Q: What sequence folds into this?
């Protein structure tokens, strides 16, 4: 740079250059690695444990794809593990699942007791596969005996993907936190278009009416969702009406999607 250039730079140019220096320094800051935080032996052990954890998740994805690739068309049914035989919700779930099986759907449940058992029991009485996606939990999760195809998961993530990836519809019976988690997982995937649009049917208007009203009064009223987002769900009480609604939804496109129409875009 010539003396004349230096003379014409002015104080503004000097300030700009000075202000850019801290930015350049920040870009050069190195993020601490695992071995900067732990001693070398402990860091190696931690990395090995995390790698083994990831391999376990991958193996569960592989087993699920091997066993479930041929179950389509299928319907995933969610519901409480705590509702006992003899309860009206148990009877409704069993009847509904038998109707789905007789209509040609594999029926997928969480494989445990309660409404999951009712789901598998009803499907097992029909001609189509009864599928249980069991998971190891410190309480509640005991495998029910009504499963033609039974998978065991240690991790929620691949299990939830299995529920979403192989289904043609979601049927949500009354349930607690786990059921709500699965419901809102499906809603989020469809709302964000990470999954193709599929029917989400809530069974039991008396049970679900309060939640739907809260969604309207709070989420829709405060513009936290679009007004049409609540239409991603429908509420029905009659088991046969649920089966009919699934067929009506898929009337034009069919149940088997072409390879180009990825059901879960993130997979």
A:
């Amino acid at each position: 740079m010539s003396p004349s250039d230096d003379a014409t730079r002015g104080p503004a140019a000097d300030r700009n250059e000075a202000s850019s220096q801290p930015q350049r320094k920040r870009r050069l800051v190195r993020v601490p690695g695992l071995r900067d935080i732990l001693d070398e032996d402990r860091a190696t052990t931690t990395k090995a444990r995390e790698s083994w954890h990831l391999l376990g998740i991958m193996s569960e994805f592989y087993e699920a794809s091997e066993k479930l690739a041929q179950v389509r068309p299928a319907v995933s049914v969610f519901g409480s593990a705590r509702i006992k035989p003899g309860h009206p919700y148990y009877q409704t779930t069993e009847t509904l699942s038998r109707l789905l099986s007789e209509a040609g759907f594999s029926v997928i449940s969480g494989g445990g007791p309660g409404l999951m058992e009712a789901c598998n029991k009803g499907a097992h009485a029909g001609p189509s596969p009864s599928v249980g996606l069991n998971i190891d939990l410190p309480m509640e999760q005991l495998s029910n005996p009504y499963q033609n195809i039974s998978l065991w998961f240690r991790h929620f993530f691949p299990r939830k993907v299995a529920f979403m990836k192989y289904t043609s519809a979601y049927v949500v019976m009354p349930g607690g936190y786990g059921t709500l988690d699965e419901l809102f997982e499906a809603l989020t995937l469809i709302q964000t278009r990470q999954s193709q649009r599929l029917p989400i049917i809530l069974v039991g208007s008396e049970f679900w009416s309060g939640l739907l009203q809260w969604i309207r009064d709070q989420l829709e009223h405060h513009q936290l969702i679009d007004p049409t987002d609540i239409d991603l769900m429908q509420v029905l009480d009659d088991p046969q009406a649920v089966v009919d609604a699934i067929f009506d939804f898929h009337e034009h496109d069919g149940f088997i999607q072409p390879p180009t129409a990825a059901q879960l875009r993130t997979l």
